[in-house]
Amino acid sequence: MLSAHSFPICSPSSTGAGNATEAGSSKGWGRLHSGTCLSCVGGEGSGEGQGQILQRFPEKDWEDNPFPQGIELFCQPSGWQLCPERNPPTFFVAVLTDINSERHYCACLTFWEPAEPTQEAVCTEDATEREEEVDEGGPAQLSPATPGPPGQLFAPKTLVLVSRLDHAEVFRNSLGLIYTIHVEGLNVGLENVIGNLLTCVIPLAGGSQRTISLGAGDRQVIQTPLADSLPVSRCSVALLFRQLGITNVLSLFCAALTEHKVLFLSRSYQRLSDACRGLLALLFPLRYSFTYVPILPAQLLEVLSTPTPFIIGVNAAFQAETQELLDVIIADLDGGTVTVPECVHIPPLPEPLQSQTHSVLSMVLDPELELADLAFPPPSTNASSLKMQDKELRAVFLRLFAQLLQGYRWCLHMVRIHPEPVIRFHKAAFLGQRGLVEDDFLMKVLEGMAFAGFVSERGVPYRATDLFDELVAHEVARMRADENHPQRVLRHVRELAEQLYKNENPYPAVAMHKVQRPGEASHLRRAPRPFPRLDDGVVQWIVDQAAAKMQGAPPAVKAERRTTVPSGPPMTAILERSGGLHGSSARRLEVVRNCISYVFEGKMLEAKKLLPAVLRALKGRAARRCLTQELHLHVQQNRAVLDHQQFDFIVRIMNCCLQDCTSLDEHGIAAALLPLVTAFCRKLSPGVTQFAYSCVQEHVVWSTPQFWEAMFYGDVQTHIRALYLEPAEDRDHVQAGDVSAPEDERSALDVASEQRRLWPTLSREKQQELVQKEESTVFSQAIHYANRMSYLLLPLDSSRSRLLRERAGLGDLESASNSLVTNSMAGSVAESYDTESGFEDAETCDVAGAVVRFINRFVDKVCTESGVTSDHLKGLHVMVPDIVQMHIETLEAVHRESKRLPPIQKPKLLRPRLLPGEECVLDGLRVYLLPDGREEGAGGSGGGPALLPAEGAVFLTTYRVIFTGMPTDPLVGEQVVVRSFPVAALTKEKRISVQTPVDQLLQDGLQLRSCTFQLLRMAFDEEVGSDSAELFRKQLHKLRYPPDIRGTFAFTLGSTHAPGRPPRATKDKGPSLKTLSRNLVKNAKKTIGRQYVTRKKYSPPSWEHRGQPPPEDQEDEISVSEELEPSTLTPSSALKPSDRMTMSSLVERACCRDYQRLGLGTLSSSLSRAKSEPFRISPVNRMYAICRSYPGLLIVPQSVQDNALQRVSRCYRQNRFPVVCWRSGRSKAVLLRSGGLHGKGVVGLFKAQNAPSPGQSQADSSSLEQEKYLQAVVSSMPRFADASGRNTLSGFSSAHVGGHGKWSSVRASGRSGGLGVDVGSRLAGRDMLSPPQANGAPPDPGFLQPQRAALYIIGDKAQLKGVRPDPLQQWELVPIEVFEARQVKASFKKLLKACVPGCPASEPGPASFLRSLEDSEWLIQIHKLLQVSVLVVELLDSGSSVLVSLEDGWDITTQVVSLVQLLSDPFYRTLEGFRLLVEKEWLSFGHRFSHRGAHTLAGQSSGFTPVFLQFLDCVHQVHLQFPMEFEFSPFYLKFLGYHHASRRFRTFLLDSDYERIELGLLYEEKGERRGQQACRSVWEYVDRLSKRTPVFYNYMYAPEDTEVLRPYSNVSNLKLWDFYTEETLAEGPPYDWELAQGPPEPPEEERPEGGAPQSRRRAVWPCYDSRPRAQPDAISRLLEELQRLETELGRPPERWKDTWDRVKAAQRVEARADGRGTPSSLLVSSVPHHRRSLGVYLQEGPVGSTLSLSLDSDQSSGSTASSSRQAARRSTSTLYSQFQTAESENRSYEGTLYKKGAFMKPWKARWFVLDKTKHQLRYYDHRVDTECKGVIDLAEVEAVAPGTPTMGAPKTVDEKAFFDVKTTRRVYNFCAQDVPSAQQWVDQIQSCLSDA
After folding, report:
1. Which stretches within 288-385 are classed as H helix?
2. Exposed e or buried b per residue across 357-394, where buried means at least 16 C-beta atoms within 10 angstroms of its C-beta
3. Which residue has the higher pLDDT, 1060 or 1857?
4. What's phi and psi for 1796, nearest 5 deg?
5. Which residues pair with 1010 in a beta bridge?
6. If you placed Cys at 204, which of 8, 657, 1256, 1484 could pair as Cys (CB 3.0 to 4.6 Å)?
7. Which of 137, 132, 209 has the alpha carbon at shortest distance from 178?
């Protein structure tokens, strides 16, 4: 008989029906084994006998399957009886199910033989499947004394073939053949036939076919189905419908699915087994897993009273005995009826599926029905064959299941993947998504065993798939579309039927069977003999032979095709049950969203207005889901702290959501809220936080175990999925994975499928590791859930334990007595709960006990199902009581505090936006922000709303102090107020005592003032304890004054430095000096470029020397420098390796880049050019030995030796001896800077330790050195080199001088309101009282012409006492009185107070502000700086050099020197130039940023001195007067002003280059180690930002090449910088661009506001909104618009600068075409009095100062002349149309040249531009091209030489027109149009080089 279906040889591991799919689909071959059993004789009459097995083959069981016991009963189900006549042979197949749920098919062929009274039964003990057995009915022990019967009796004998495979036809034929051989007496050995039958090899599955023969001239073809997961029904389904009809079969179908008992009755055994087979086939893809006995023997009828469901068939003869069964549905196949007892309710299919299925079935069964009413019916259609109809009926049910279960895979939870998949089905979600929660039928199906089997069998993500998988995944949409088209449905049914038919009959045209059959009525003939006893030995020998042969041959196994099971589209509800009134209208959802956003923005009034609408909307499922999504958006890092008002609101809405949830939570609302109820919380008091879960416990869902299980499994799935989606290194074995799907989108099932596919390929250890990981994942989730459950099950107040008892789940789980006791005692608990009675109340324990039991049951169930180890499980059981107990203790405090809640409702704290890398140090302390004395914020004369006082919180981060809140004035509306400043900018903090605005209590407060002109005047809320306030102050102080500069934000951000490391650890310095050498050695030659080309190679420093710092303990620089004296250091000869490396890096710095541009100095003495150079670059300070605060390379006169510099330096403060920092390109005069001179005695004091006698002589020698040095400076100047005995300024008439000595002083007593007579009017260049120059215009340059010294030394009056006048009068001293740093500090304090008073002024109005502004003397200091700077500019412009030697040389000196360069050199007025100026004069020359900014604890006492800010203010004043000369916008100056104090960038930290090198800062900017991190340099940040937005660019930039600016400096011409006064409360200071540029206001129509239609107009409030953002200038607006349009068109947006340059170029071309004159005159012509020309000053008084661009309308101090009005009008109209590119202004020489491309490229004509300002040679494609194609930096040019034509050069040109330009990188070949133009180009380039 056929070998076991599920035990193919190829797949020995598979067991049981549960894995039938897997097993069945393994395709291989099995043995065909069979058995015949001769059955026995019965006694006379109709006495019942007992069947006995006469013979069985094989004698022993097959190894892989036992022989079914009790087979005798099934051979004669109605009992073994003798019968008086010969009946024809009968055949049927009974089905037995063994203990492993394996089905055994017993084919029984019964025939009758004359009974022999004395026949003995032979019974073999052992039996196995696939054996031949002969059963006999044993007689009912007739005693020998009984008389013999009158007639012949016949006893039944049965041949039984038992098989695990279901091939009924083959069984029938094979048994029939044996019977035929016996009856017809054919000459064939029965032993051979049986042996062959037992050893036939037949295919198992996969649609193969095989012909077998049993050796009796017979032939049979065995076909196996294609997929053995699909049942084989032959015609059984069609017959079932024919016998019972559609309605009855549908009832039986529903009954079987909902686990009712079904009994079939019929007189035919074959029909019974067919009906049962048919019903099972309809249930596919579910497998029936209860009792299934198609033919029940009479002896076992008591089985029918079993309590479990069953499908059983019984002979109709026993109908009477089935009458008393009360709960069994009886189907009478012969009568066509189905009887359902009254007590049984069979749930019908859900509508509309029930009616749809019914109609499709009737179309299949009765196609004529559709045509019955037609007037002209078509000729009759041929009905399908019975077999085909059978498949069509099955197809209908297959579609039904696909519709019922569509999307089921989206509700599967992968709980484990390895070692075996564990899968759970989320029933509630499935029902909820389908809208079938109330449906009885589906509910029961999903809870049934069959569905559980379905999930475990079909849930597996990686397996063989079949027709149903395809159907449910891919055809659902089609079925939905076909619903109303019967013909399309029918077509689909037929397609499916074809597939089912093909599955059963893969080879339709098979050869017919050929099997001998007995002749007609052969059973009536007398048999030649009884069925013989067969020879066991022969049969066994044949079996052994075949077995031996089989062993040798390898099994032919077809690899099973396993794939990832398709999930199909995600579920959408077929039936929207909630429908009607509460449909998910978008408007409702909008209301819910708005309400939630109002709550979180703290707009509680608005939220309350919407509440009723929200509560109504929440009846709908979509609104509830929308609500949970919205709430999720407001949870950060699993926590959201609300204020009381918000908390109550959120809890109320949550409760409203949950009250409509059933215990199943089918829509996942409770599931979505579960993480939220543990996230939303409020602080009740310090250390006590109440979470939302304590207020939403009264819902049945929390006590439903199924809910928790589903949640648990869902979370486990998420974590298991994440486990396998970890980064690649954790899963290198997944290489072959599905690369195409983005990791994040793969569902858990996809991941599981992938893992199952890889599982067999993994090593044993890896498998173990994965199993362990999964197990611990499940375990940790179990702990998490134990906590969560305790949160939601333990009531806040344990006296409410009654409520807990009454909840569905817990109530049922407790014993009745228990709950009675609790109820009776509940009253007393409240009082005793808080008392410290030393023992816990009974109630508490009781509640705790109930919860612990509930959690333990849950934990047991889920952990067992998901394979958690028993140790872990025990651990959990130990933990649960502790978890519960801890939680109870927490709740005590919460309950106690919640009773004390203050009645007042506070708004929610608004969280500030933080920069990347900025971290919160102290979370929000609730405070009131009080008005700071400025009127605007408090709604003063500006007319804006009263934004202050505001209620909110103050946050302290690593970078800023931030207040966020809302105005307390209810009329203002709900505007967010933000005020913040960098911690580093804090200048003063004082405690104050103030009244809170709301309840007028006196509260502690704090006033924080910052140098960025923000003032936080705060009153702490009463809930903020004094300790919190104190902690805030301490933390603030710690952040403001870190012990070491490394503790500042610029370092801690993205840096690995531990803050607070000792500042001078040698460990730190090594790397920093090494860094110097790393990349830069090779750059040194390149950068200093042409000036010292040496042919020798650099040898990089050896490791021992690298990075040796100067000896640290010797603070005395001189002793260090003595060692370096002897040589004039040149890179080629004398630099030691370690020096050279420092050198090369110094060369990179800004100073050197600028010196090249200015053509100052050379490093080498070996070049011939060097001799003619008056100055050189000296590396004497390269180790910072002479002067720590100077840069490493300095410009000194060529004639001074380095060792002399050492001595000169001693005469100056801080050793800052005079060095050159700028040279005028026109007059060749130089600007020098130094520290002030030491006083006589002081010098001696300072140098005491070196000098033998600190006497006069030393001072004198120093003075001599100093004089020599000054003499050298004078000699270096071209026109004074040989002159002597010049006149000085002393010949000036005393009328100019006033009464106080030669130069008088530039001192003014600010209080007297004007400049004193002693200001030194010659400096101002005018008579004090002369009206034409009343606004501080500089003097006529001619006034100094007649007598002029070569060098003017501008110094402090006090300092210049010790300096002898120059005997030759080549230099002249200009003593002036300047203010000191401490005066700047004092003045700034007053300025701060004036701009941000801190408390309301006594007399409101502008007068008091102006008075306090004047008192601060800030503008007077600005005036002095500008005055001195303009003086120096004049001197330089007239050809005299100037040495600025004030104070220590690092404050006012720096201000003056920088201003002079800015006014004199247009380059410094570009973005790049200004950066260079700041880097050179402020950073390299050692302005003490850290000291002046009090950056560390050490500098705390010195306080904040804004020297740099004062300089920026001066630049701002110049910018106001000359708006067209600056490439940068005023915002750029404010930006630098803000960030020089903010410590966000490292640029403005530390006091000198020396310190920066020590910290390793200086050269890291070169980028060798910098990854993608935050900008550390402010310049880098500006560059990045400039690419994105024109915020730093000045659109009015249109410079004149040679313009030297001479601004008015009188106080009346100065403006208070708006940086000091402006504020944007909407978003805080706008200088942290990432924060300020929040999302712009949405256009009105998109704005999610409910209510009235909105106007498109918007109020812009002073002090609140940012005006430039609300109303950008026209050009910015157009650029924004352009970018928006580009984005809409899908084009990559162009950089704004490119657009701008292109527009300007186009305008220039147009202007030329219109003949409006040359481009350079365009602006001048339209702006008559714009102070352009060099020597002409405006004499028109007030009109002149009215800038005709009307930039500053109030600058005019009187009449506005009509001319200027017209000019203003004209200029604004032509301003934008006549702009030119920046390039055009700097074109010193231009023309066409041919240029040879790089290697292998041709010659091309290009338009070349020589630019002396930027020191570049640029080239363009053609003359009007704005895109620069390339730049040759003149700093890199080594030589310009005649060239020779190369291949491809222009033919017609003279050879002499070729020339080469050689740079450090390559040689450029050029060709001019003719020889003269070539010569001109060479001369121009040479002159450029020599200028430099």
Report:
1. 353-365, 368-371
2. beebbebbbebeeeeeeeeeeeeeeeebeeebbbbbbb
3. 1857
4. -80, 130
5. 986
6. 8
7. 132
What is the per-residue pLDDT across 1100-1118, written as a single tens digit (0 to 9) for each? 333 334 333 333 333 333 3
pLDDT digits (tens, 9 = 90+) for 1394-1417: 988 887 767 767 788 888 999 999
pLDDT tier for residue 520 given thresholds of 50, 70 and 90: confident
With the C-alpha atoms ordered 461, 467, 472, 477, is the resulting torsion angle positive or negative? positive
- Residue 1508, phi then psi, degrees to nearest 5: -70, -40
Is 33:68 a contact under the CB 8 Å cutoff? Answer: no
Q: Which two tokens stand for residue 431?
A: 């029902």
Q: Which two tokens stand for residue 871?
A: 């140790």
Please name the residue ranges forming H helices in 1637-1721: 1667-1670, 1674-1688, 1696-1714
Task: List 688's β-bridge partners, or say none.
Answer: 685
Exposure of 1424 by Cβ count < 10 A (0-12 exposed, 13-18 middle, 19+ buried)? buried
Q: Is residue 32 a contact partner of residue 98, using CB atoms and an 8 Å limit? A: no
Angle of CA points 1571, 1573, 1577, to nearest 5°: 105
Q: Tokens representing 1202?
A: 């380095």
**Nearest-angstrom CA–CA distance, 1245 and 1264:** 18
DSSP 859-908: HHHHHHHTT--HHHHHHHHHHHHHHHHHHHHHHHHHHHHHHT--SSPPPP
The residues, any chain, with a CB within 8 Å of residue 328's CB and separated by 6 or more, are 261, 262, 263, 304, 322, 341
> DSSP string covering 56-83, please?
EESSSPBTTBBPPTTHHHHHSTT-B--B
User: What is the DSSP-derived secondary structure letter of residue 1484?
Assistant: I
Contact 577, 1628 (CB under 8 A): no
Structural contact between residues 1530 and 1407, judged by C-beta atoms closer than 8 angstroms: no
**pLDDT at residue 1461 above 90?**
yes
In order, the DSSP letters of 1316-1329 are -GGG-HHHHTS-TT
SS3 call for 238: helix
Please report the sign of the dihedral spanned by the C-alpha atoms of residue 1191, residue 1196, residue 1202, residue 1204: negative
In this prediction, residues 94-115 reach a mean pLDDT of 88
Long-range contact set of residues 1167-1172: C-beta below 8 Å, sequence gap at least 24: 1167/1091, 1167/1092, 1167/1093, 1169/1091, 1170/1091, 1170/1092, 1170/1198, 1171/1198
pLDDT at 564 over 90: no
**CB-based burial label for 750 (10 Å; 0-12, 13-18, 19+):** buried
Angle between helices 669-677 and 764-793 (to 10 degrees): 80
**Dist CA 1294 CA 1302 (whole Å):** 8
Q: What angle do CA 840, 843, 845 make, to 5 degrees?
A: 60
Q: Which two tokens stand for residue 136?
A: 């006999």
Q: Are 77 and 163 in contact (CB under 8 A)?
A: no
Q: What is the pTM of this model?
A: 0.51
Residue 1708, CA distances (Å) to 34, 317, 438, 1719, 1777 in order: 104, 113, 78, 7, 8
User: For tokens 């401490």, what's the residue?
Assistant: 1382
Q: Is there a contact between 116 and 157 (Cβ–Cβ < 8 Å)?
A: no
Helix spans in 1543-1639 (H): 1553-1558, 1578-1588, 1633-1636
Would you call 1010 helix, strand, or coil by DSSP? strand
